[in-house]
UniProtKB/TrEMBL annotation:
One of its GO terms (molecular function) is beta-lactamase activity. SUPFAM superfamilies: beta-lactamase/transpeptidase-like. Residues 2-128 form the Beta-lactamase class A catalytic domain. PANTHER family: BETA-LACTAMASE (PTHR35333), BETA-LACTAMASE-TYPE TRANSPEPTIDASE FOLD CONTAINING PROTEIN (PTHR35333:SF3). It catalyses: a beta-lactam + H2O = a substituted beta-amino acid. This is beta-lactamase. InterPro entries: Beta-lactam/transpept-like, Beta-lactam_cat, Beta-lactam_class-A.
Amino acid sequence: TMTTSDNTAANIILSAVGGPKGVTDFLRQIGDKETRLDRIEPDLNEGKLGDLRDTTTPKAIASTLNKFLFGSALSEMNQKKLESWMVNNQVTGNLLRSVLPAGWNIADRSGAGGFGARSITAVVWSEHQAPI
């Protein structure tokens, strides 16, 4: 499912959108010049020093996530679906949720790779604070 880590499902979705190249091409179309997807699961989780495959930068992924959730890169229906998947994400657990102040919400997605690498892409907001 989209709220748990399911590599087989991810590869089926990747195939439906043109594979890693289809994802990277779409990212270029919406202005993300950094993020790239080169391999499928689980191979994309293996990284070596200097290997640029399957990488992004913090600035690029934050900008792309902003376009997905609040911009025009996705339809309103797909924005809501993505937000729901990220709010209900079960992979990250309490990694960030446990330290959020009361009244704050989080929508996140995480990943892990070799050498203890961990990534979390998230949006946080409260009733009185716009998403960051």
